[in-house]
Amino acid sequence: MASGIKVTDEVVAAYDEVKQKHKYKYVTFKVSDCETKIIVDTKVESSTYEEFQSSFPNDGARWSIYDFDYKNREGQDRNKLILVSWCPDSVKVKAKMMHASSTDALKKKCPATKVQATDYDELNFDEVRERILTTSQ
């Protein structure tokens, strides 16, 4: 936890609601205004991938746990939990550094396949699917 920012119990509970209970399609997290903890930003019960992709702000860093449905190379339905680390180039340097140094702490509490993105193109469905296919089936 290089940044000293703590992952709240609320974040871990929201992660479990996506992973185990499938209550939400995705949950988004951010650094709190006091810059001491990672908190839940939004919880979305149902969403298309395009809606999820466009939900990230142009001017703010976020993380999201997303229940990603896709087909493997053989055409079989698969599902993978992904942790999106969203940090566009427009984010101020201090916020970028805080976001980057807090990502590992979040990944330890909320394990998932990490996807890093700085723009919407990097969150393209096919590109994310390809990244997953190179690491697992």
From TrEMBL:
Q: Which residues form the ADF-H domain?
A: 4-133
> Does the keyword field hold Iron-sulfur?
no
Asked whether the keyword ATP-binding is assigned, the reply is: no
Transmembrane stretches, start-end? none
A GO cellular component term found in this entry reads:
actin cytoskeleton
BP GO terms, sorted? actin filament fragmentation; actin filament severing
**Which gene carries the instructions for this protein?**
LOC118430541
Q: What's the protein name?
A: Cofilin-like
Q: CDD domains from the xrefs?
A: ADF_cofilin_like
Question: Care to name a GO molecular-function term for this sequence?
Answer: actin filament binding
Return the Pfam families for the record: Cofilin_ADF
Under SMART domains, the record lists: ADF (SM00102)
For this UniProt record, give its keywords in alphabetical order, as a comma-separated list.
Actin-binding
Annotated family: Belongs to the actin-binding proteins ADF family.
Species source reads Branchiostoma floridae
InterPro entries associated with the record: ADF-H, ADF-H/Gelsolin-like_dom_sf, ADF/Cofilin
